[in-house]
Amino acid sequence: MKFIVRLVPLACLLALAGCGSSSLSLEEQLQHVASTASSATLFVQAWCDGNVPRDYAMRTVDRAGENLDRISGAVASMPASAGGVQEAMTEIERLEAAIATARVALEREDKIAARSSLDLLRQLESEARRQTLVEAGS
Description:
It is a single chain. This protein is an all-alpha fold. The protein has helices at residues 2-17, 26-48, 54-76, 85-107, 111-137. The longest helix is centred in the last third of the chain and has 27 residues, at 111-137. The N and C termini lie far apart (44 Å).
């Protein structure tokens, strides 16, 4: 129960992270991508460990996908000349695919497949954070 109580504030952050607005900079959008990846990873891991119900994890993963759709739209509308836009779009597409894979694993109640999706989710979160730092430095 303590674990679920700790996850509620994180779920609120996930909802905020998806507020991809076209007025945000690429750096801010990448921060939202990393946060979305982190939240999805946390909830898939929590389900694998038996700390949250599958339906709760699935809703969180679904919300992560919706957030990425909004972020993707905002990033796609940025000028192509903006540094890192194409790289960001590629990372968002990879993360969308990884989240879809995690979603299927949750649907099937396949903890082995869910755990294997965690490595890619973590890698993509790390890449989004790296890109955020690159954007911050430019």
